[in-house]
Automatic annotation (TrEMBL):
Taxonomic superkingdom: Bacteria
Entry protein name: Uncharacterized protein
Amino acid sequence: MKIDGTSKLKNKESFNFLNTETKDLAMILMDKKTVVANLFDKDFELKSTLVFDSPKHDNILGYKIIGNTYQILLSNNSKKRFSIVNINFDSKRASTDDFKFDFGDEKYLGSIHYNNQLYVLSANRRNDFIIRELADKGFSTIKTIPVNSKESNEKLLTFPKAQAFASIQPNLTLIDNRVPNSIEQTASENKLYQKDNFLYLSTEDEEGRQTVLYKIDLEDLTLSESSYEYPKGKIGNFKNYNSFILDDHIFQLGSSKEELKVHIKNFDNEIINEFYIEIDKPIDFINSPIFQEGGFLSFKDKRELEDISKFLRKVSVDKIGITGYKDGELYHFTIGGFREVVGGGGMVMPSGGYVVSGGGVPSINYSYNPTYIAYTSYSTANATFFNTHFDADFNYASFEGSENVFDKIKAFKKTIKFDTAEDVFIQEGKLYLSSYDSWDKIFKIVEM
């Protein structure tokens, strides 16, 4: 589709904002000087367009929608100065409201959306998980959740490794379990999921040998807390643990150099199924070779491992993870581990999924669009893993297919040229790739 005003843009980025009530979609193309805002209906028919100057802040944190006015929240790098860009598609006018906010001893974690409202998340060293909603020229605290941890303070915050002068950073990864995620993402010890009006905050308590799950209802702000004991080894004690949440079930993983076990439980703590790997014995629930992939931001080397003992040794030394999604009646799962890679300059590549953009273009916050972050992390993973599948009752299902929707995007991108301003988003249960063709000056939306 041809969009007016895009020829003015250089170093473009795109952002997609879905109205959950009308199913309209606002698509924003912008650089450091100009914004081109477009409103489409659910059938991607163009309804309105306006062009205006870019705001002074360039970190997009999320959006709120009131009628046909889309309020885009941006901040400076320190998260102390904020702007709300009000885009009114009826009057075709845009305005900006600036405000200051001090998080004090808290650290900004990210943002989520529900019913066209924006919720901003933060944490402090006392392990309080704090939810605020975007109000007029500021934030309003609506819920504070104490996250219990037997390990130490700062469960939701961390000091990055290999950074001598680093400041405290978020230790929470937002997961979109509707799509594939990399082991690098799901190996995080603290994860946040959203399904409709529910938030699921999971934390790994290895000292207590359990996963702790907090369930928050955004409708009435009620909170429930549950704990799920880790699987136990048959040969000895497991060294590493992790978990994954999908379709009201928890998938827990424990491993050592001699063995690995997966428990699938419902939220009532009942074990639905169990899978086990023992050193030097064939894996009886595997649907792929064991893969070992190469490093982040380097040549993507991928080779196969045939030795089960090497797989167990690698995933027990590295950070382990389990990740899955549902496609039709089949659950697609990946089990393995990854090792953090130190890039040039001594900075560890973060597992939270930060996206860095240069040339003055806006930055996509690591939790702004978890679907896009899942896609980018999937493309750059550094892991040892194998794939498997479960049926609707979580029994092992033999399945030869391996290509997922992100693989399809990767293959599709090889057929096109001159595309920039890429984004990946879900609308009405379908995954779309959007991009701008800088040669033909058209904006493309492709269902994958």
